[in-house]
Specification:
With 327 residues, the chain is mainly alpha-helical. The chain has helices spanning 3-21, 24-47, 57-74, 78-102, 107-127, 129-132, 155-178, 182-190, 192-197, 202-228, 233-236, 239-252, 259-278, 285-300, 304-324.
Amino acid sequence: MNRSWIIAGVGLAALALVPFVASPYVLHIAVQILIFGMIYTAWSFMGRFGLTSIGHGAFLGIGAYTTALLWNLYGVTPWIGIPAGMALSVLLALVIGYPCFHLKIVGHYFALVTLALGQVIALLVIAARDVTGGSLGMTPTQVGESIFAFQFPNRTHFYFIALALWLLVLGVWYWVAYGMRRAALDAIGEDETAAAAAGIDVMREKLRITVISAAITSLGGSVLTQYLMYLNPETVAGVGISLQIVFAAIAGGMYSALGPTVGALLTLTLTESLRILFGTHFIGAANTIYGILLILFIVFLPRGIMGLIEQFSLFRGTREKESRLPL
């Protein structure tokens, strides 16, 4: 059996055992790592092919608020609210993506468009405070244990839901990274003009990857809201969460399947450590450190932590082969 399959099987078995051996606090962090790992992986779909979005908080917020508002105002189950939020995010991705890609808005101009998008969604949420709670946030109506309401008293339920979704998103990542469309996306990322000259439908491919990324990000926002049972524009729609997504994906390694999840582990560990260390005395510590680390990673580790590990493994393997060569 292939060694990688054995490692994957052992890793999956270890993940399945986490709820039965971990403390409630560790399990709580593990659930968030899986959900955020899914969100960060969704961003990497675009980032690895040169589509730099720094406004993904918009799709996260749409998913979160659509699900919560449909439940609170109309009693619509999250099982319908979650797909509705994904549909709205896809629509927004098309509304923003089509004119940008048609007018060939790329690079830092596209990044600025997405940044503005994220801020617009956050401001709309704040402006509609009578419905959304504004900057104070809102809490979905709680009914206790209910599959219909997507509410469970035990974190174990959410852990396995998050694990299943995370594995599904990893499957999508492999489909994008190694599927038939990968060559077209690589070509677009290198040179759009040359890709178009080679017969690639640049707009269709860019819209496809943007829509997939937006839908999965929206899904992550909805599930995160159902787990935490609280949301506000700063945590699910603002510029801060958008920059956190970018930082985590780059720090972990957006060119690796597990890179964004490693980034989720890094950001959540950092956030919890700062919360325990400083409490409420240094509110902006996390975002400040994210910004500094983002600069350092872009300059010194552009392929992230997983990229460094893969490079070290490749170097070690090369050295071992050379050592076995006859003198």
